[in-house]
Design a protein that fits this description.
single chain, 461 residues, mainly alpha, 20 helices, 75% helix, globular
Amino acid sequence: MEHSRIKRLISSNIVLLVFLAVYYLAFYPLIGVIFAGDSYWYMRQSIRVSPGYPLLISLFRHVFLESHWATALVLFQELLTAYAVFTFANTVKKLFTLSSLLQFIVAFFTAFMYYAFRLLIIGKETDTFFCNTILTEGITYPLFILLFKYLLLSVVNHDRRLLPTVYSISFIITLIRGQFFWIPLFLVGYCFYIFIPSSILRKTITSSLLLVSFILLSSISSMLYHYHASGTISTTTLGTESTLTAVLYDVEQKDIAGLSVSKDVKNTLLKTIQEAEQEHQTSKYAPKRYIERYRHYEDNFDLIRKSFMNSLAAEAGKTNYKQLSDDELSKAIAPYNAVVLPLAFQILPRYLRTRCVNFVAGLIRSNSLMHPIGIVGSILLYFLAVLLLVLTRNRDEYRVERSYLLLILLMIVSNALFCAFGVFALSRYMYYGFPLFYLSFFLYAVRYFKFLREKIQEKES
């Protein structure tokens, strides 16, 4: 009997894995390889981007040669996504004691929502099918699923043995995409939780070591990679570009005068602000209504950044910032690292207002669309999530469901908050937790109906 049950379980898992592999691999003949705007920087191994994805591209170029590396990388991304969805659905099945049918529903829902659903609501393949695109999201989406899976297992089971796995995935995903630099801080809270009932001292030491080692490893890895690729010892420059652009959106010309910086730096900043104001790109010209205000920020963010970067290129005698070598770019942007914080504090009310607008947009886009109806729906969903957490806080039978919902909510909020201060709430930056968030309500419903069925059976007996 037990042997037969194990055989059925293995068979259903094989069928599910094959289904997911075929589902994702079918995208290749339909869509092929997509090269997006940012693909250029990864293929160039530029100092502007995090080193993880360019390293992967280098590996595939070395193994599969120039003519086939892109195809091989896309197929790898498709299979990695299929595996991530499969192992996530398998974990959910075990933790929530689901049937094989419900496991298939979880897997299909997750697979469908991550790419096919995005195509329906956005309509652009380059912004939806990341497993077929030469972008970091082709790797970071499946890694996010795996990270969530191991965090969930560790939290539910209070399993400290999974800490190295969680740490490793966190390090890799952050090395690939700087957007995830909120994860080290997230792991501090995670350490405090899984080391209950350890002493405060032990938890503090463990989490501090984890945080410091994470930051040091990330910085050293980035510098070593860029030195190997271009001979320039530097971390990624895109962080400075993005955070400075976020500040410049709220800056006016008069704010530059009080900065204690060199004349060249001040002139570059003034030129950028003057051009932005002439084109009505700064917050001074933003509409009052929320959606239009956020759209204004989103539409003008990259325009301000390009204007600033082209100003740096002009100082180096180039017509476009894409012509700058890594060494030239590193030297040109270095003086601006010290500008971001003083400038942000100088315009703090305006700056924080835009961050709040951006943060709310990130929360909305993590479970809905930036549309009046979508905003109302998003608010209702978050309200329902909080209500479920409150109503089940003392219900031990919902312990796993509460852990799942609380974990995905914390990850969504952390991601939205970090992006609010770094870039803007672009849909593909926010969508990581989208299907996982909706699945939490499904899992609550499954648990409720199981509980209801048990009550009915008790009454009948």
